[in-house]
Amino acid sequence: MEDWHSNLELLKHYDVLQKTGIWEQLDLLNGKIKDQQELISEAIELFQKDSIDSIIEYVTSKLLNKFVPENLVFLLQEGAFSDTLRTIWFKNMKPYEGTDHIKSLTSCTKFFTEFPNSISFNLLEYKLENESFINSLRYYNPEIIVPIVGIGGLNGLILIGNKVIGEGFDREEIYYLDTLMKFASMSIQNNLNHQSAITDFKTRLYNHSFFIRRLEEELSRLERYDEEAALLVLDVDKFKVFNDTHGHLAGDQVLYHVSRAVEDTIRKGDIAARFGGEEFVVLLARTGQFEAFKVAERIRNKIADMTVDFQGKQLKVTVSIGGCHVNKRRLVHATKLIEQADSALYNSKDKGRNQTNFFEPGFYFLSKVAALQLSS
Fold this sequence. Notes:
CATH architecture of the largest domain: 2-Layer Sandwich
Distance between the termini: 85 Å
Number of domains: 2
Largest sheet: 6 strands, antiparallel
Number of helices: 14
Oligomer: single chain
Strand content: 15-25%
């Protein structure tokens, strides 16, 4: 009732209020409230993205609804422990394959760690005393630069160019860009922090704890959907002797290259991890026993054929592999499954190393493997 009387009073004085400009001010405030609500919704969406690629895809879609910057460039670390930059470049909001002119952010790390805010290129040019880096940035013709800064320091830059159509960015557009890109920066940083928490430092594969969690999830899924999976355990043969002969730095280099060989062989949905020391594990989802055996052999052969160049020395290693297969009718706890694969790994070691064996294969399985090898 009181609201009705208030509205009636406003209507009585409508002409006076209109002349004072209060209605325009109210419209302006309502527009700002709507813009703030839109940004909050976009921030929530960004923080729910589970990959850097999905964050970038979302940001580009939002910008397309507002305006088109001539250049939008993401300079991002390749991984949680990498100094190598990944360049994602959009020209007129279309993916563009250009030359990577910036290979490292070392030159501006100290500056953006101390001043972790958006900055115009002109001001950065004035403040950053590194002509070479500024010239490299100039190639992308940026107008605004947003740093991606986290606990570990600078992890990337977002470069935003001028608008394709119209004059320069107005005040509201700069505010929108600055806010959206800060949200994007925080979301990217969250993804990098998560990646660092689940990644092994030396090999850049997943770590032990993350793998166990994923293995338990996969076993639960098998029970619900009556599917199958396989687990592989790999161990570098005579690795202690290798380290004693060539040194631990050479050993670290070999572990890194073994990891890449494993990663390059398995499918995108499979999970590879460093389990500890020179031991690796691979979870092959929706994979039968014979298919898993073939994957294991491809990994083993790839590593056996691999040469690692370390300080002018050409180094080679082999791996022994143990595997086990699981489905709903043969379901065991994650710990037990790892024990079974380990048992098969020891069998491979006992038989002379550089080979693959599966847990309790039996004569029937061995004969099928032999037939499979003959037919392939």
